[in-house]
Structure formats: structure tokens, C-alpha cells
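Q: Hi! Curious about what Nucleoside diphosphate kinase B looks like structurally. Here's the sequence.
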Amino acid sequence: MDSGSYRINVERTLAIIKPDAIHNLKEIEDVLLKSGFIILQKRRLQLSPEQCSDFYADQNGKPIFPSLMDFMSSGPIVALMLARDDAVAHWKSIIGPASITEAKENYPECLRAKYGSSDLHNALHGSESLHAAVREIRFMFPDTIIEGGEATEEYLSKNVNPILLRGLTELCKEKPLNPRIWLSDWLMKNNPYQPQICDGVMDEN
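A: Let's find out. The predicted structure is below.
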């Protein structure tokens, strides 16, 4: 296979563990890591109503807006900057739809079906698009410089290159008849997606 046909589209996205699910943080982090995400930064904070209003400015004017402001400022949250290939779409698929009824009926394995209790108290937030992710990451992590090339290089150096090098070394030792299938099986058995949390210290605001 031509190596030029491979392209890893590494992205960053923002996840928020909302006040109603913060006690499930460890379980949710485990899901993230097993799903191939790197947790680049993590921050525990309590938003003021004014900060909530700024963050959810696109929801202003909707009937749910006042209740959303009250809920999101009612207790601490944890904001996570995540990276992996197609991070935005993958995180959205893991958390499931915002409607708890739809989540529980149609996507019972998603995180909102598991941890959410209503459309308002739906446990988690995920950026809707790459554009939204950039804005939301800058909001939660104002000192962060977001560069696509940097994210890709960091992701590859931490997740892909070391395990691939090990696999290729073993491949040379084994000299199997079908190296492509052997390497694929080896990578699956050795779980190439075992990222570590880069910033394990949560700052308090």
C-alpha cells in the first residue's frame, strides 16, 4: 500500500464534564483514553453566570438559556482539551445526542444515555465543529496556542510513532509470510491507543 494514501487528520476538541456528572470524572476519562484520545490539558473550575453567558452566547434568546446559565454555574465543571484523529466527530459520537430521550432510546451505549437525566442535565459537552472547538478551547484555556501542525506532531509522537516502531521491530524479527496482516494483528493485541494524560494537575479557580 502506498504510504501516501494514509492521512491522519488529528484535531483538537473541547469536552466539558458538567456539574451533574463531575462525580463520574474517572469513568469518563477512562472512556476517553480507551477511545484513543490524548488529554492535552485539564482544568477544574466554577463558571460565573456571566462566563456561562459568554460561553453559550449562541444559545442566547432560546427558552432554555436562563436554565442553562443557572445549571452550568451551579457547581464545578471539568474542561478537557482533547486530541486524536477526527476528534470533534468522534467525541460527539461517544457522548451522543443532546436529547436524553433520543440518547436513551437510540444510542443506549453513549455517555449521555448513561450519565444524563434530562435535556438540560445531559452530563457532557462537546464542540459542534472545528470552528467551535477553537473558540471554546481558547475560552477555557486562554493561554493555549492552537496550531493544527503542532497537534498532529504531538499526537503522532506520543501515540503512533513509538508503538509503530516496536511493531516494525518485531516484524523484522518474525519475518511472517504476510507482514501486513501480522503487523495489523500485533498492533491490535498491543493496543496502540493507550495515551497518557499530559497535564494531570487540575487547577482550581
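A: A fun detail: The chain is about 45% helix and 15% strand.
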